[in-house]
Known about the structure:
Strand 1, helix 2 and strand 2 form a beta-alpha-beta unit. The protein is α/β, with parallel strands linked by helices. Residues about 1-25 have low confidence and may be disordered. The chain has helices at about 5-25, 45-55, 85-90, 115-120, 145-155, 170-175, 180-190, 210-215, 245, 250-255, 285-290, 315-325, 335-340, and strands at about 30-35, 60, 65, 75, 95-100, 105, 160-165, 200-205, 220-225, 260-265, 295-300, 330. About 35% of the residues lie in helices and about 15% in strands.
Amino acid sequence: xxxxxSSCLKRGSAAILAMLMGVAAGAQQLLIIGHRGASxxxxxxxxxxxxxxxxxxxxxxxxxxxxxxxxxxxxxHENEIGSTxxxxxxxxxxxxxxxxxxxxxxxxxxEDFTLAEIRTLRARERLSARSQAFDGRFxxxxxxxxxxxxxxxxRELGRTVGVYAETKHPSYxxxxxxxxxxxxxxxxxxxxxxxxxxxxFIQSFETSNLRDLRxxxxxxxxxxxxxxxxxxxxxxxxxxxxxAELATDAGLRDIAMxxxxxxxxxxxxxxxxxxxxxxPPTDLVSRAHRxxxxxxxxxxxxxxxxxxxxxxxxxEAEYEQFRDLGVDGIFTDFPDVAVRVLKPLR
Length: 346
């Protein structure tokens, strides 16, 4: 047996053991993941948002990672940073149009700025329906600063605060010579979070970078699945070209060869029609669990536009439903609501 085959078998056995332990422990193992921090309360992907999420009780904080021109990872939801910072007023001449994963986008892009230039920017709220009271007050953090904050919060709060990092558009960044994975692993190594026991997940909507990471690290990897479309890196592949294909039994078996779980759009588990009316849950959770895969669901939000009318204005009801469906973790913009519902069972 090759070392790679032996490694896969060990990971598979470990995953199955983890699943069985999770089943035995029940809802006590359900993770609360601060989606971009406590982004329902503070501008997303700021140290202040991450700190508040942990203070509210989140187990993990989630930075999305993009690269600067000089190869430093910073926390932004997208490499287009015009919608989440004041870059338009500070660098008006840098606006441009680029094709990112086949989509033409006009704006300002992280890879066109050095870290020193990014340091001059201030974050602003992306969603117009949320408070703009904190616009212009918070800086754009580096990944190194996010990890350092998580470790400081562990000491401050007396409990583990993990990091759940997402690589954004890895094929795009690779194509312009700014690989995301080496600085990601180097940062975690420098902070001593470099093995399977570390409170770290790495997630991606693409597959190739996760497969490559599997050969480089024991850290837990999560394959993200959306309701529509497919991984950009598999657009010309012969199989598993769409997220729907990856959510089949065959696709999940493929994922289990390189990842520890799936991060599923909530509508892959609880479908809804165009009006938000809920449909019967699917069996995705049970099918993934049978293969030893964790299931983390994204993203629960309390804002009325994001909440199904079937919950009758109670965001707590959505957490209760996904808890009862047996998911292993929940991404949320409102960790305070998640803790209120889930903490009594933890």
